[in-house]
Design a protein that fits this description.
The complex is a heterodimer of chains A (about 350) and B (about 375).
Chain A lengths: L16 E2 L6 E2 L1 H18 L8 E5 L4 H16 L5 E8 L6 H15 L3 E5 H5 L3 H8 L4 H19 L4 E3 L4 H14 L2 H6 L4 E2 L13 E2 L7 H10 L15 H16 L3 H11 L12 E2 L6 E2 L5 H10 L11 H10 L10 H12 L1
Parallel strand pairs in A: 3-4, 3-6, 4-5, 6-8
Antiparallel strand pairs in A: 1-2, 7-8, 9-10
Chain B lengths: L9 H10 L17 E4 L2 E3 L1 H18 L8 E5 L4 H14 L10 E8 L11 H12 L3 E5 L10 H7 L4 H22 L4 E3 L4 H13 L6 H4 L3 E2 L6 E3 L7 H10 L20 H15 L3 H10 L29 H11 L13 H8 L9
Parallel strand pairs in B: 3-4, 3-6, 4-5, 6-8
Antiparallel strand pairs in B: 1-2, 7-8
Helix pairs in contact in B: 3-9, 7-10, 7-11
Classes of the chains: A alpha/beta (about 350), B alpha/beta (about 375).
Organism (chain A): Adineta steineri
Enzyme class (chain A): transferase
Family (chain A): Belongs to the TtcA family. CTU1/NCS6/ATPBD3 subfamily.
Chain lengths: ~350, ~375
């Protein structure tokens, strides 16, 4: 359809693209406006930010976080949210992947003139992902990366003393997580994964950690790519070298197929997820704090501490699969913290003391 | 995720060495007989033990919550498929005089005939009548899917010409079939409706419903008793039995099922949301044998939506505000009345849930186009 005109500005300009969400022709300018307006509406409706807050944007250099940083800066100025934005990056230490993407983040920092802090796995946990993969092998290494990153973001946010973390999760990611949690039977996360904000006052399941929000929750992945492309944003697009993750790949393909059959499917899945109510009688894991590092955990010893212990003792598979027995043993003797050179939780305690 | 520690797992090792032996040398897990069926890879069973296991699973699902009252009128939804054929067989045995712990209800059978939708399909009515009336001697009610519709209001034309997607066609037929079953049950004063939905189908249905925005009804859809209709309760005694187990039971007992054409016949695996989901679930089940039961157990932990306002299409409780759910388009309103409501007053407002609203967007309502 070369002659199609934009539905939004009443045919003043020729259409440049078909909006994936609505399948309607749009010109570039109207698409930008609509995309930004929808994110603004989400932020206002869900009351994600309060004036005067400092927000850490979790930046990986990929399309989602680049668009998030760009749009938040833009909207913050346009609608005067009164926010102070900072970029927060985690360096997992994956040569050939993260080092390149962090270069992108550094360029973004200059372009957007935002402060940037980079934390590395090496300094937080004593192990970089390259070293972990060498010890663990290609299988299951995503467990380490995922568990560590979640804590690392919180630690970085604490260092920067920010009020909230904004992550670049888009609608496709959330739909995928909802289906994954059903397929894995993870009822506790199924309930939580649709929330646009976790860890704030309304969410009593997590204690004293820093709230996180997902301003792009209703933005389609395809639209994010289009936005980044037409805005000529500087982003990095390579798959992680270590992530085959076939199971998630199945679900991802399924969601793309669904989107082709019915473009509204992604929003429909999110609607479905939001409607789910968990039975009162269902046993839910109790949120508490890890006895070692005081980070929130559903077990007496958190997963990160368990994984580190395994790595340091040369049994990297320790934290994968059935771990109950080992956790109990660890609780009993807990000799790790006496050996200060190895344990990351001691390091953390030391740095906290320094700050005080 | 599921391949974790496979090498270390003792059970897995035992399994690996077991599979090399070949099927002949394997013994039944509960007795010393030679096994003839393998339901789960680790548990081969002989015929007697398998049938005991299967019937026990069926009967315990039923007796768990004492669903049926003595002498209650019960309608069996028979489609001719393998699940409902097995169901019919089991219930006939359970009702027979020789049965141990005899079932105590009065059974009637309903068959929804869809053959009028397809031009070149042989009607299976004679076969159904022969099986149920002559052999089993239950009262049989056959109703055509376009029953009670005006001549100018052709269901076939609506589905094939005015409905854009196969997803919408399948869902319309599914809702219409359920509506007709409810009508028969109410007419025949049956208070229970038994369907042959099995665990495998329900798992695919759960995911497919999620993908269509029907998350609010997932808990209802897979429960043993489903009270979306105030007069008739749906009962699903096969909800814990997989399609594989049913196929084996049917084979061992030479239970025949009818080969029926349905709306999705001759369409590819990616042609509708349900087909796509079913393919995904079956593929995953092959690689990770716990897939179906995990999906099923997860939705078992969900609370039922109990809002009193119902959707006029799927009869489930509404999951959006009452004013959001109102259908304003006159033609669509008329369409819903003709297909799904029995009330004579066709000016009553129509309310639909989120998913049915999406569904109606794929349907062209205007009848007077020609």
């Amino acid at each position: 359809m070369p002659s199609a005109t934009c539905v939004s500005c009443n045919g003043q300009r020729p259409a440049a693209l078909v909006r994936p969400k609505t399948s309607e022709p749009y010109c570039k300018q109207c698409f930008f406006d609509a995309f930004e307006r929808e994110i603004h509406e989400t932020i206002v409706k869900e009351q994600l930010f309060k004036p005067g807050e400092t927000i850490a944007v979790a930046a990986s250099g990929g399309k989602d976080s680049t668009v998030l940083a760009h749009v938040l800066k833009l909207l913050n100025e346009r609608h005067s949210y009164g926010l102070k934005l900072v970029l927060l990056s985690i360096d997992e230490g994956i040569t050939g992947y993260r080092d390149d993407s962090l270069e992108t983040v550094k360029r973004n920092q200059q372009q957007y003139e935002l402060p940037l802090i980079i934390l590395t796995y090496k300094e937080l946990y004593g192990w970089s992902m390259d070293e972990i993969v060498k010890a663990v092998g290609r299988k299951n290494n995503c467990t380490f990366c995922g568990v560590f990153r979640r804590q690392a973001l919180d630690r970085g946010a604490m260092k920067l003393s920010v009020n909230k973390i904004a992550t670049g999760h888009n609608a496709d990611d959330i739909a995928e997580t909802i289906l994954m949690n059903i397929l894995r039977g993870d009822i506790a996360r199924l309930k939580r994964c649709t929330l646009i904000m976790t860890g704030d006052e309304s969410d009593d399941s997590e204690g004293s950690i820093i709230p996180r929000c997902k301003p792009l929750k209703y933005a389609y992945e395809k639209e994010i790519v289009l936005y980044a492309f037409y805005k000529r944003l500087d982003y990095f697009s390579t798959e992680c070298l270590y992530s085959p993750n076939a199971y998630r790949g199945n679900i991802r393909t399924y969601i793309k197929d669904l989107e082709r059959l019915r473009p509204s499917s992604i929003i429909d899945i999110i609607h479905s997820g939001e409607q789910l109510l968990v039975k009162q009688s269902t046993k839910m894991p109790v949120q508490r704090v890890c006895e070692r590092c005081s980070y929130c955990s559903s077990m007496p010893i958190c997963k990160a501490c368990l994984l580190i212990e395994g790595l340091n003792k040369g049994v990297p598979k320790l934290g994968i699969g059935k771990t109950e027995r080992y956790r109990k043993e660890m609780q009993k003797k807990d000799e790790c913290c006496s050996d200060q050179s190895l344990c990351h939780c001691m390091k953390e305690k030391l740095t906290v003391n320094e700050h005080n | 995720m599921c391949q974790i520690n496979e090498e270390d797992d003792e059970a897995f090792q035992a399994l690996k060495s077991g599979t090399n032996k070949g099927p002949i040398s394997r013994k039944c897990v509960s007795c010393d007989q030679d096994a003839c069926v393998v339901v789960r890879t680790a548990d081969p069973m002989c015929r007697k033990c398998f049938e005991e296991f299967f019937i026990h699973k069926f009967r315990s699902t039923l007796s768990k919550s004492n669903v049926f009252g003595r002498g209650e009128n019960v309608l069996l939804a028979y489609s001719g498929g393998s699940s409902s054929s097995a169901l019919l067989h089991l219930i006939a045995e359970g009702l027979s005089v020789q049965a141990r712990r005899r079932l105590q209800f009065q059974a009637q059978v309903a068959f929804i005939d869809e053959s009028s939708l397809y031009s070149d399909v042989v009607s299976v009515r004679e076969k159904v009548t022969d099986l149920i009336t002559n052999r089993l001697q239950y009262p049989l009610h056959i109703v055509s899917i376009d029953d009670n519709l005006d001549k100018d209001d052709d269901f076939q034309q609506l589905l094939l010409e005015r409905t854009k997607t196969l997803t919408a066609r399948e869902e319309l037929v599914r809702r219409r079939r359920l509506k007709l079953l409810f009508d028969i049950a109410i007419r025949e004063k049956c208070t229970k409706l038994i369907t042959g939905d099995n665990c495998t189908k329900l798992a695919a249905q759960i995911l497919s419903d999620m993908a269509q925005g029907k998350g609010a009804h997932v808990a209802l859809e897979c429960n043993l008793t489903d009270s979306r209709n105030d007069l008739v309760t749906i009962v699903r005694p096969f909800r814990e039995i997989t399609s594989k187990e049913i196929a084996m039971y049917n084979r061992l007992n030479s239970i025949e099922s009818l080969q029926n054409a349905d709306i999705s016949t001759m369409s590819g695996p990616q042609s509708s949301i349900f087909q796509l989901t079913e393919t995904l679930v079956n593929d995953l089940q092959r690689q990770f044998p716990s897939t179906v039961s995990t999906i099923f157990r997860t939705s078992d932990k969900l609370e039922k939506n109990i809002r009193p306002e119902r959707c006029d299409l799927c009869c489930c409780p509404l999951d959006i505000n009452v004013d959001e759910s109102l259908i304003s388009d006159q033609n669509r309103q008329k369409l819903v009345h003709q297909l799904f409501t029995t009330s004579p007053n066709s000016n009553e407002p129509v309310h639909v849930c989120y998913a049915c609203r999406r569904l109606l967007r794929d349907v062209q309502p205007n009848v007077q186009s020609h």
